[in-house]
Amino acid sequence: MRFPLYIAIRYLFSKKTHNSINITSLICAGGICVATIALVCTLSVYNGFQSLITGLYNAFDPDLKVSLAEGKTFVCPPEQLNKITTLENVAVVSEVLEENAMVKNKERQSTIYIKGVSSNYIQLIRPDSILTAGQFLFEDNGTDFTVIGAATAAVIEGNVACISPIYFYAPKHDTKINMANPEKSFNERAAYVSGIYAVNQQDIDSRFAFCSLDFARGLFNYNNQEISSLEIKLNVNGKVEKIKEQIQTILGDNFIVKDKHEQHEEFHRMLKVEKWITFLILFFILLIAVINVIGSLTMLIIEKENDIRTLSCLGANDKTIKRIFLLEGWLISATGAVVGLFIGLLLCFLQQQFGLLRLNDGGMNEAFIVDNYPVVVNGLDILIIMATILTVGLVIAWFPSRYVGRNQG
């Protein structure tokens, strides 16, 4: 293998009799280089956006979330709750009751998702990172308070400075709607706005209204033990999969335990599909560039007919000679791929450090969450890109090289 590789490297860098062969080889390597740069940078930007949005969701998402496999609410027996709370590396277990409702402030109203939480919920999230006004307060001296999203606050014109409460309405789930007097079929509860949160995600900022668990139970006519989920925060060194299995064992098959990724499985699946569709589109562009290796290698084989005869006379068999030109074609692809990988990684590094590509023009700082395109280089993506290019390059180089030796000699 050493002899064919040595000759192939000599052919790659030596000057050819016909300059067109050098130009064709350079164009092939250049096309593969550009396609590799595009793959590295594009996939890294996708990773950057995924990491950015996941970080925004993580402000609310617990490490683990327990809910019913079928049904809406349940009562968690104290002995099971105590077992979960005392598990190693479990830091906080918060009881949660979630349900749809309507919120109204004077003449303005909106649909919302009430999230009633237990008093230790504030230990599960990072309120200082999401609060834009006020504080996370749900009850004070018998007065009910709520924390709403910035988008909801804009719709109903509610804020922490309001001296009047906002009102929540929810249908009574245990009675039929009275068409003669529909208002009697709804529960009404009032609460003052204690805080406004924002994570720059429209579906989150317009979705939740946080309140106490007792407030939510009273609004929806649930008893003082019913909840819809358990949200769990783990210690930094907690092994998620191990604890997830332990909780599943404690609660049984009637419950589902989800980690952060599984809580937004549809979102992650959508991003992954978009990412790999983009990869396939760029792969076809890469394939066009690699196919040009056939023309370059064919011209080289024609030019090196005399060398092929000489090698045959010196004892090289057809297999060895074919291997020389197979490696020659593969080296063209590999050279373009390695140079493209280096330039792509360099561009990603420069984007991370200096923000070469910006999302705004400097005059709309509030239009985007970040000023520059986020970039995260994933080692697995790099391995897939390089393996794809090198494999395709080897297959393409095989086509012209297999005819070497049949007509020479």
Account of the 3D structure:
The protein has 409 residues and is of the alpha+beta class. The chain has two domains: 191 residues, no CATH class; 197 residues, no CATH class. Helix content is 50%, strand content 20%. It has 13 helices and 13 strands. The strands form two sheets. A six-stranded mixed barrel has the order 3-4-10-7-9-8. A two-stranded antiparallel sheet has the order 2-11. β6 and β7 form a beta hairpin. The chain is elongated. The two termini are 22 Å apart. The mean pLDDT is 86.
Beta-strand percent range: 15-25%
Overall SS class: alpha+beta
Helix share of residues?
Answer: 40-55%
The poorly predicted ranges are none
Shape: elongated
Mean pLDDT rating: 86
> How many beta-strand elements?
13
Strand order of the largest sheet: 3-4-10-7-9-8
Radius of gyration: 32 Å
What order do the SSEs take from the amino end to the carboxyl end, as H and E? HHEEHEEHEEEHEEHEHEEHEHHHHH
Overall number of domains = 2
Between the first and last Cα atoms, what is the distance in angstroms?
22 Å
Per DSSP, the total helix count is 13
Q: What can be said about the biggest beta sheet?
A: 6 strands, mixed, barrel
